[in-house]
Design goal:
This protein is of the alpha/beta class. It has two domains: 17-120, 3-Layer(aba) Sandwich (Rossmann fold); 152-204. It has helices at residues 31-37, 58-66, 78-81, 85-97, 114-147, 161-172, 178-185, 189-203; strands at residues 17-23, 44-49, 72-75, 101-104, 109-110. A five-stranded mixed beta sheet has the order 2-1-3-4-5, sandwiched between helices. Helix 4 (85-97) packs across helix 5 and helix 6 (161-172) packs antiparallel against helix 7 (178-185). The longest helix has 34 residues, at 114-147.
Length: 204
């Protein structure tokens, strides 16, 4: 639930420091992150109790909608925002595009500084490296499938294959449902079933 510190008001006339905190389950406590708040000049707090492996978090969305140019979003560590390099890059780049500064206390990153801007370059390079590795593995899987006569063609043109693969991994770990996959990919349940079967034939 969104929390507002006692000495702050909902006012967008000045730049705000906004804190985002997250734990994975209801049984986990936000106490450690709350303790950090006492040391920071924070005016507004958003908190989620949800896995960091996907982006469908209500308070994360609310915070990104609220934050304005000149504001600063602060987290205890990268992992509180996302456990995926791809999603972390997407979030930080979205903030940067809106003129919002990002700070991570554990990693000592501040994107308003030169070193913080270098961080964006490095994480973008890491993301591109992960994409290249994924493409290489996919090509190897297709080659093997073709040799074994199991290759059934390419994925549906409207589907983001990188997003599909990330969602598929989470689905197999039982972290998300097929319904959630359909929503993120914008496809029907029957199309998803066909794509999962095709993907497994080509890659597993």
């Amino acid at each position: 639930m969104e929390n507002i510190l006692s000495n702050s008001i909902l006012y967008k006339g000045w730049n705000m420091r906004i804190f985002y905190e997250r734990v994975s389950t209801e049984r986990q406590s936000l106490a450690r992150q709350d303790e950090l708040l006492k040391k920071l000049n924070i005016e507004k707090v958003y908190a989620d109790k949800a896995t960091g492996k996907h982006m469908d978090r209500p308070q994360l969305k609310a915070m990104l909608e609220f934050a304005r140019e000149g504001d600063t979003i602060v987290v205890e560590s990268f992992s509180r925002l996302s456990r995926s390099t791809k999603d972390l890059l997407h979030l930080v780049e979205s903030m940067h595009a809106k003129g919002i500064t990002f700070e991570s206390q554990k990693e000592k990153i501040d994107t308003s500084t030169a070193s913080g801007k270098l961080f964006l370059t490095i994480i973008a390079a890491l993301n591109e490296f992960e994409r290249e590795v994924l493409l290489e593995r996919q090509a190897e899987g297709i080659a093997v499938a073709k040799r074994n006569g199991k290759y059934k063609g390419r994925m549906h043109a409207s589907i983001d294959k990188f997003l599909f693969e990330e969602l598929y991994k989470e689905y197999k770990k039982r972290n998300i449902t097929q319904k959630y996959m359909c929503k993120r990919l914008g496809i029907s349940r029957s199309t998803l079933y066909k794509e999962i079967k095709k993907y497994e034939l080509n890659n597993l």
